[in-house]
Predict the 3D structure of the following.
Amino acid sequence: MNVLAVLQEIVGVEHVLVGEHAQAYLTDWRGRYTGKAQAVVRPGSAEEIAKVVKTCLQYDIPVVPQGGNTGLCGGATPNNKGDAIVVLLTRLNKVLEIDTDNDTITVQAGCILQSVQEAAAKAGRLFPLSLAAEGSCTIGGNLATNAGGTQVLRYGNARDLALGLQVVTADGEVWEGLRGLRKDNTGYDLRNLYIGSEGTLGIITAATLKLYPQPVAKCTALLALDDIDAAVKMLSRARSGFGASLTGFELMSNYCLRSVTKLFPQQKMPFEGPSLESAWYALLEISDSESAGHARERFELVVGEAIEAGEVQDAVIAESIQQSKDLWHLRESIPLAEAEIGKGIKHDVSIPVSRIAEFVAKTNELLQASFPGVRHIIFGHLGDGNLHYNVGAPIGQEEGFLSRQKEIYEVVHNSVHAFNGSISAEHGVGQLKKDLLPNYKSAVELSLMRKIKRVLDPNGIMNPGKVINSVDI
């Protein structure tokens, strides 16, 4: 019996996709990577996934897990060998349990993030993970890449929101670790090994996640700033003035927001006069447990003090839910505007907050010296030090610009390293950055990672060619 027939027996003939039916799952979201596979398999349970993995182990077939296929580093796309099986988790899409007394929700890995948010809201709770792809990304993918998003400042990354996991190991066994415990000091933290491993150690099939009380009110404001130093000062003031109520602090350059309003005329900047020429803008949001009036009062006090101190040039505080959505829409439209401008060279980096202004100034200078006229498309989550430091082609030189990626990566990533930062903050490593890790991780770190990979996936079938080079294992 051939392997496809075995897989059909496990998951059903209609859930083993080959040929043209599999093509939609073989190219990553950005269109940068296209691979080949023997088949795309859609199991309906962790037990079926375990049987699929055991079959692949028996036939020495690579396994590539995939959720919503919204990743930005090619982590869920097979290589061009054509021997892999893509394991699609979208049929595992059930909310298994909501425990409001324990403030947890247990869901299968194929659940869409937005569906988890909505299920929590129906139970009167908040699941705070929030990112642009929340309408299509899955919880399994969020955990596999340790996704961040816009509320990391208050609630942490995906890793911080997960209490327990169910995982199919590289041996085809099922680890039942769906414990909703805040404290469990009984040995090595297996959960955190799998979170952020991008499917290279096993397949996350379900998770028990933290819930929080729904805020009574939210308040949002857009601030106009002279420079990044002013934004960092405002962040410190906001942390002191709002405490744990501060849930978002996003930084955006003038170029980013001008691009949004130029390409999408229905979106408007809420400022007039000189504030339209401010070099930088910050989007703040607080969540309040008392009332909308209380939230606004606190906002006006803290922002007013910042204006008096000269840290903020102007501010617009949302007067309604719709105005708040409009402000966030400006921020969330930046990647769409980038796509309209033309493909740029993207970076997802993290820098100590105290050094971000210096990093941007220095790196901009280095890039202009080597690549005159490049556009700096800079935005990100200032509250947790995560910048999307993207580089656009000089005007009129868009053709062939992506061929300079290696050179530009070297300049930017060397600068990130010099500032004690990381070349991947929330997007993962995937195929895109695996060859770069030896340049920025110590020999000890890489050795430990290889040892973990060899122990948990001794046959090297789990998502090969991602995170760590297979030749190094």
Notes: The CA atoms of residues 225 and 231 lie 7 Å apart. The domain at 217-335 is CATH 3.30.70.2190 (Alpha-Beta Plaits).
